From TrEMBL, chain B:
This is Aerobic-type carbon monoxide dehydrogenase, small subunit CoxS/CutS-like protein. GO terms for molecular function: 2 iron, 2 sulfur cluster binding; metal ion binding; oxidoreductase activity. It holds the Pfam family Fer2. Residues 9-85 form the 2Fe-2S ferredoxin-type domain.
């Protein structure tokens, strides 16, 4: 799925990819070897990359197709959940992970059935659309991105990984190998998004995880998508909530505080003002639901 | 497998049970391979942005939008298109149900819609109306208003159980 | 045996459900691919087109600009003179851009290449030097006539005409109340699922065009005029067409370029629009009505006085001239108001040219008059039904000539409203919604009424042939492209000839096979093509009776035809249908076919529709249910008719809440399905559709009136009314977008 930057009308007439080379490695090692040498873009499911190629926004010399690498498609459960980069959305959407229910909820809201059948979490994450679903979830959950290159492995916190619109902390030659998310047991979790039309990117989306003890907020994680250059961690709102009871007043104040630091765009989906309104209401509604459930 | 940008690559793809060997540019979209190279024009192109679903096919049994895959990605894999859903001129239950429920008008979205419905029913027989609507929102129809399509999918589900 | 009135299954669905349909892009033909270079500017002088790099690329045959193409494109695209009198219009010459571009997206060059990927690569390699000049991209700015779209016209106004009836000023003065109003529809995009496409092949003497069109015969006439080729040497074929909604009844410069290229190169040339190109080929709506109404304490509307502005875009398309000339005539709708003045204006802007779209002028008029009725209701605190009851034309006034001279044929508007209110459960649903709102939900129910003008003569062609083996081929000038009207016409013919429907084959859309025709638009096909087919069938049957009479050595009057048998009434001798068919081709008879061009007139279906809308905390509105009660005359195939309500209703949902073609300050448009919101199954409502059992027939033989556009004509008014009920806000423009709703939510 792709979003059209509003002013770039004349890119979108080009609906065939430009000439591009192709490499299908047998292993991750082979892929890294190739990426080290050549100017290439990693292709996994292609659901973000191919539309970009069709628009000719990207013109890599080669595509390195890691979509078929079994070694990168897995969900490993421990205290930390490890997800291989080419794990497909539908696999995440059909698996309920204790302490990480939010991931299933978010995965099942990505694009549509067809996109989920072939698109991968790694592909979506590396595309870093500022309105995509996973970045907010991973930011809220303090996930760690495991990045591999021929030189070795490094780990990046989600917060640092998403650098801006369509921009992540990946250097030439590097591949996102795995996403690690700490299990949040005892947290109420939800991912909600507001869309203009089913299947569309979020006007605003909210990833929320909250731990309550006798009605008092012990820990809370709030991140939005669609309202800034990248995922927006609403630290101010978290501050309001921490160690408080979910009273009407607290919820209201947290909702108001959630927009602090957000910088929503105005586009064909809605104005900046509207997105801020949606943010507040998203958080308010979600907190109200949680307050009622607890 | 490595191909230079200005070269073609030999791919093997099984389409509707028939193995096809072909040379394609790496940039060729799967839908163009099916339509232009194999002549399987039942699969349509409606939008180019992975939105409308007219190009939906089954890739290794799962529905995908063939306008958003490269032909080379299908190398070594199995594809079913609308042309592969009926055999010996006997229509599949989904195809029958679409006819019987007036689930098509101009017919342009129909192939994608039927392939998607076929996939959904292969995963789950009993779907509520809401589930069906939520599972076909990647397929746009401009003519029918969807009600008859939803009815057809429910009807097909009943036929498949019978 | 009777087929009419039954939901007979569509005859030709097998090919669609098995992938054997053939739309224009599915044609297997060895042709060059065209790709277009388009203007980035809303208004600019073309200084130079750099073709050199493109011409060097592999697979590229040539590149043409307006300089070359317009040597072949002799005449410009003009208005549809069957329905539009060009005399009061100011019309710019519209061929392929040459020297100047007038809207962002206008094609400036065409690449011809052996492969579509390479054609696109080459188009990208072409650069154009432009000198931008002042552009005017909004109707409000264009009205000032400061910046002109077409200097040679001296104004941006393409059309000015005042429609006056009675004495609106006086009626306003004597009215109990007066109220200023502003009502309109913003620009949208019709968006049939199949993007338009064309294949042209010129063989040195004859031109063949395969074309995704609703009007192959008009297209033939236009191509003849534009290229200077006699109609007899042009064949236009309409393959399967994936929806039109009025947007495939006009011709664009890209299509002329494809034909011209084929003529110049002597090779077949093809072009299929990408979705973006399709969305730039046709924009629709955008009209604003500003004025004042007068009404009395009892709720009767007595005067309408205002200005109607309709945007044209950069050029006058084949169909857009209909809007400013028909909207005013239909503003009185089914109501008795007789004192009106509508100053109708049509305005050029440097934007994508605008065309008609499903309903073509009746949706605009109906939205205006229904908003006025609701305004009166709100002002007087009367309910929507009461206000309409007090204004509807009464049965004893029928046939009724409206203040602008339209003659409403048949109907009982008041009875239908009252029946509709019951059948649609309007009052109980209103009450239900009120209670839901008390519980904190935002739900609302809205109703609106419409009177539609259908049929739109002037004539239609049909031929019925009985083949040697007793089969029946019906060739119609109508051009079904999804509606399923071919099945309805087969039902009518099978009934007329008393043969099994399996014997009847309906063909259309090939100008060589069907000598004449008008097409499918204006909800006319079953009425006008159907009546023509019935007439032709009667004539064939008469011929068969003659053949039977000669064979049985009887007078024609002595031969009775019934259920496939010709019976000699006196002697009881019989001849079977097949025997007579065979004799028709024995060398002694002239064959068994008859063709007619049947004259037709307008006819007026009407109905009441209701929407149930729910709004969430974000201002996102969803139409949960849509119910319709219509008198569309006799119903030949209820399932097909319902399908039109479902489809039109869903487009009404789109027009009311989702579909907005946003033109930015540079005249550019958001143009993919990823950001233009055609409703999906999730946004679409549940439908209930009812047709009046005691219908009022049209003057057509079929007694039908038409249903193709009804729900898009009245739907927006019903949906917006429901939205008002749900939120307490007031909305007078479509689409109503979420943030407007949120701002007015109580």
């Amino acid at each position: 799925m792709v979003r059209i930057p509003f002013k770039r009308l004349f890119l979108i007439i080009k609906m065939y990819p430009p000439q591009v080379g192709y490499f299908r490695p047998e292993s991750l090692g082979e892929a890294l070897e190739f990426l080290e040498r050549e100017e290439a873009k990693v292709l996994a499911g292609g659901q973000s990359l191919i539309p970009m190629l069709k628009l000719r926004v990207l013109r890599p010399k080669y595509l390195v197709d890691i979509g078929g690498l079994k070694e990168l498609s897995y969900i490993k459960e421990g205290d930390t959940i490890s997800i291989g980069a080419t794990t497909r959305h539908f696999e995440l959407a059909s698996r309920r992970i204790r302490g990480l229910e939010i991931l299933q909820e978010a995965a099942s809201k990505v694009g549509d059935v067809q996109v989920r059948n072939v698109g991968t979490i790694g592909g979506s994450v590396c595309n870093a659309d500022p309105a995509a679903d996973y970045p907010a979830v991973l930011t809220a959950l303090d996930a760690t991105m495991k990045v591999r290159s021929k030189k070795g492995t490094r780990e990046v916190k989600a917060h640092d990984f998403f650098k801006g619109p369509f921009s992540v902390d990946l250097n030439p030659g590097e591949v996102l190998e795995e996403i690690r998310i700490p299990r949040l047991e005892g947290y109420s979790q939800t991912y909600r998004k507001v869309v203009r039309r089913a299947g569309d990117f979020a006007l605003a989306g909210l990833a929320l995880a909250i731990k309550l003890d006798s009605g008092v907020v012990k820990d809370v994680r709030i991140a939005f998508t669609g309202v800034s250059q990248g995922p927006h961690r609403a630290k101010e709102a978290e501050k309001v909530l921490r160690d408080s009871k979910l009273t009407k007043d607290v919820i209201k104040r947290a909702s108001e505080a959630s927009t602090s630091g957000a910088n929503p765009p105005s586009d064909s989906r809605g104005s900046s003002w509207y997105r801020l309104e949606v943010m507040k209401r998203l958080l308010q509604t979600s907190l109200e639901v949680m307050a009622n459930e607890s | 497998m490595k191909v230079e940008p200005d070269q073609k690559v030999r791919i093997n793809v099984k389409v509707n049970g028939v193995l096809h060997e072909a040379e394609v540019e790496p940039r060729k979209l799967l839908v163009d391979f099916l339509r232009d190279d194999l002549g399987l024009t039942g699969t349509k192109v409606g939008c180019d942005t992975t939105t409308c679903g007219a190009c939906t096919i089954l890739l290794d049994g799962r529905s995908v939008k063939s306008c958003t895959l490269l032909a080379v990605q299908a190398h070594g894999r199995e594809i079913t298109t609308i042309e592969g859903l009926s055999s010996d001129s006997k229509l599949s239950p989904v195809q029958e149900a679409f006819k019987d429920n007036f689930a098509l008008q101009c017919g342009f979205c129909t192939a994608g819609m039927i392939v998607q419905a076929t996939f959904l029913l292969s995963q789950k027989k009993d779907m509520t109306e809401e589930e069906i609507r939520d599972s076909i929102h990647g397929n746009i129809c401009r003519c029918t208003g969807y009600q008859n399509i939803v009815n057809a999918i429910m009807d097909a589900s009943r036929r498949m159980k019978a | 045996m009777s087929y009419s009135g039954k939901s007979v299954k569509r005859l030709y669905d097998d090919k669609f459900v098995t992938g054997r349909s053939t739309y224009v892009d599915d044609l297997k033909i060895n042709a060059l691919y065209a790709a277009f270079v388009r203007s980035n500017y809303a208004h600019a002088v073309i200084k130079r087109v750099h073709k050199e790099d493109a011409l060097k690329m592999s697979g590229v045959v040539t590149v043409y600009t307006g300089e070359e193409l317009n040597r072949v494109i002799k005449e410009g695209i003009g208005p549809w003179t069957t329905y539009i009198d060009p005399r009061p219009w100011k019309i710019p010459k519209w061929r392929f851009a040459q020297g100047e571009v007038k809207y962002a997206g206008e094609p400036v060059a065409v690449v011809l290449a052996t492969d579509k990927y390479r054609a696109r690569d080459a188009a990208e390699a072409i650069t154009v030097d432009y000198e931008p000049v002042d552009a005017v991209v909004s109707m409000e700015e264009a009205k000032k006539d400061k910046v002109l779209v077409h200097k040679e016209l001296g104004t941006n106004y393409g059309y000015k005409n005042d429609f006056v009836a009675g004495n609106p000023e006086k009626a306003l003065e004597s009215a109990d109340h007066r109220k200023k109003v502003e009502i309109g529809n913003r620009r949208l995009i019709p968006s049939p699922m199949e993007p338009r496409g064309i294949v042209a092949s010129y063989d040195g003497s004859n031109l063949s065009v395969w074309y995704s069109t609703q009007i192959p015969h008009f297209a033939r006439a236009e191509f003849s005029r534009i290229f200077g080729i006699p109609q007899s040497r042009i064949r236009v074929v309409m393959p399967d067409v994936g929806g039109g909604f009025g947007s495939k009844a006009h011709i664009i410069p890209e299509e002329l370029a494809v034909i011209a290229s084929s003529m110049m190169l002597g090779k077949p040339v093809r072009w299929t629009a990408t979705r973006t190109e399709e969305m730039m080929a046709t924009n629709s709506r955008h009209n604003v009505f500003r004025g004042e109404i007068g009404f009395n304490n009892d709720g009767t509307l007595v005067a309408i006085n205002g200005t109607l502005e309709v945007e044209l875009g950069a050029y006058l398309t084949y169909t857009e001239g209909i809007q400013p000339t028909i909207i005013p005539l239909m503003i009185p709708g089914p109501y008795r108001v007789r004192d009106l003045k509508i100053e109708s204006r049509a305005i050029y802007t440097n934007t994508i040219p605008i065309t008609m779209y499903r309903g073509a002028s009746r949706p605009e008029a109906t939205f205006i008059i229904e908003r006025l009725m609701s305004t009166v209701a709100d002002e007087l605190k009367l309910d929507d039904v009461t206000v309409r009851e007090r204004n509807l034309v009464r049965e004893d006034q029928m046939p009724y000539t409206n203040p602008f001279g339209l003659k409403y044929d048949t109907g009982d508007y008041l009875t239908l409203l009252r029946e509709g209110v019951k059948i649609l459960e309007y009052n109980s649903m209103k009450e239900w919604a009120r209670k839901e709102r008390e519980k904190g939900k935002r739900v609302g129910v809205g109703l609106a009424y419409y009177l539609e003008i259908c049929g739109f003569g002037p004539w239609e062609y049909a031929e019925t042939r009985v083949t040697e083996d007793g089969g029946v081929i019906v060739a119609i000038g109508g051009t079904p492209h999804g509606q399923g009207t071919e099945t309805a016409i087969a039902q009518l013919v099978a009934d007329e000839l008393q043969v099994p429907i399996e014997r009847v084959k309906v063909i259309w859309g090939d100008s060589d096979a069907i000598p004449a025709g008008t097409g499918t638009y204006g909800s006319r096909t079953v009425s006008i093509a159907g009546s023509a087919a019935v007439t032709a069938s009667r004539q064939v049957l008469e011929k068969m009776r003659r053949v039977a009479a000669r064979a049985m050595k009887a007078d024609v009057e002595e031969i009775e035809y019934k259920n496939g048998e010709f019976v000699h009434k006196r002697e009881g001798k019989k001849m079977r249908w097949e025997e007579v068919s065979r004799l028709g081709y024995s060398g002694k008879e002239p064959g068994l076919s008859a063709s007619v061009t049947l004259e037709g007139d307008v006819t007026f279906p009407y109905g009441v529709h209701m929407a149930i809308v729910e709004v969430d905390e974000y201002g996102m509105a969803r139409v949960k249910e849509y119910r319709a009660y219509d008198d569309i005359g006799r119903v030949i195939n209820p399932a097909l008719a319902e399908g039109q309500i479902h489809g039109g209703g869903t487009q009404a949902v789109g027009q009311s809440l989702y579909e907005l073609a946003v033109i930015n300050e540079n005249g550019q448009l958001a143009v993919t399905y990823a950001d233009y919101y055609v409703p999906t199954a999730v946004e679409s409502p549940k439908f209930k559709s009812y047709f009046a059992e005691k219908y009022h027939p049209s003057p057509y033989l079929t007694k039908t009136k038409g249903v193709g556009e009804a729900a898009l004509i009245v739907g927006p008014a019903a949906i917006v009314r429901a939205l008002e009920d749900a939120t307490g806000g007031k909305f007078d423009f479509t689409p109503v977008i979420p943030e407007e709703i949120l701002k007015k939510m109580k």
